[in-house]
């Protein structure tokens, strides 16, 4: 494996890990054309792919892909044997199988929530995969597996995410489920009650109360004034006879 090709793959894997949260083990969906190319070029997918991606890989396919290979007869018998060794993922076409390309496209709908890689030699399928953001594409060229560079759709999607203009569908669903789990989801017909915030004490209540003058407090002062007046009257009354006596003498 060339050093340049390995660095190229590492850079692309970093993009998908950071922008679309791809984690090990990497889920790789393979179709019949990729298995046939690997057989023809003597590529050991299970042994070579983890080293190329830089982590554990889980190889898988669908029932529709195996059915399609069985229908093509002896020409693709070896590819069918290879595909049957991989884990078979459930698809929505159990009763009515569809073509392998149609089935794989259905597995990456709604924003590729299961973080699948698509491994194919089908050019038409590759073009359709590139129109969906966040789906890594693998193919075989000159006896080597190649991880395609991120498509313009993926790059534009990441740019929108960085400007907070878009949220992936699988993240929206995760947010809704998390809110329901924590009991934060709004229920229809129910209104949230506003909680009163604990405020500080009323500033008016902190003021010192002024002492009110009661009637009991006023009575002593009034009596003092009256007593003072009475004393003055007595002094005047005693002074008048003394003056009259002096005048008589």
Describe this structure in words.
Helix content is 51%, strand content 11%. It has 249 residues and is α/β, with parallel strands linked by helices. The protein has a 6-stranded mixed sheet with strand order 3-2-1-4-5-6, with helices on both faces. β5 and β6 form a beta hairpin. The mean pLDDT is 82.
Assign the structural class, choosing from mainly alpha, mainly beta, alpha/beta, alpha+beta, or little secondary structure. alpha/beta
Radius of gyration: 46 Å
Low-confidence stretches: none
| Mean pLDDT figure | 82
Instruction: State the shape.
Output: elongated
| Major β-sheet annotation | 6 strands, mixed
Beta-strand proportion: 5-15%
Into which percent range does the helicity of residues fall? 40-55%
Strand order of the largest sheet: 3-2-1-4-5-6
Element order, helices and strands?
A: HEHHEHHEHEHEEHHH
Helix tally?
Answer: 10
Q: Say how many strands there are.
A: 6
For the record, give the distance between the C-alpha atoms at the N and C termini, rounded to a whole number.
Answer: 153 Å
């Amino acid at each position: 494996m060339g050093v340049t090709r390995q660095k190229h793959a590492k850079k692309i894997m970093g993009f998908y890990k950071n922008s679309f949260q791809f984690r090990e083990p990497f889920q790789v969906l393979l179709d019949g054309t990729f298995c046939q190319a690997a057989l023809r070029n003597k590529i050991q997918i299970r042994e070579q792919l983890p080293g190329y991606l830089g982590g554990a890989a889980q190889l898988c396919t669908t029932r529709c892909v195996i059915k399609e290979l069985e229908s093509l007869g002896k020409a693709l018998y070896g590819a069918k044997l290879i595909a049957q060794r991989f884990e078979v993922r459930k698809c929505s076409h159990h009763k009515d199988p569809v073509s392998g390309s149609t089935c794989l496209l259905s597995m990456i709908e709604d924003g590729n929530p299961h973080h699948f890689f698509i491994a194919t030699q089908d050019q038409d399928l590759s073009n359709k995969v590139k129109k969906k953001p966040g789906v890594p594409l693998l193919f075989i060229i000159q006896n080597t597996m190649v991880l395609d560079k991120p498509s313009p759709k993926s790059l534009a999607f990441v740019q929108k995410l960085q400007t907070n203009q878009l949220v992936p569908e699988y993240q929206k669903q995760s947010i809704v489920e998390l809110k329901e789990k924590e009991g934060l989801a709004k229920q229809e017909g129910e209104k949230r009650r506003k909680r009163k915030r604990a405020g500080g004490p009323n500033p008016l209540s902190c003021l010192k109360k002024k002492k009110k003058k009661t009637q009991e407090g006023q009575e002593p002062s009034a009596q003092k004034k009256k007593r003072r007046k009475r004393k003055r009257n007595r002094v005047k009354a005693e002074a008048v006879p003394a003056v009259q006596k002096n005048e008589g003498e």
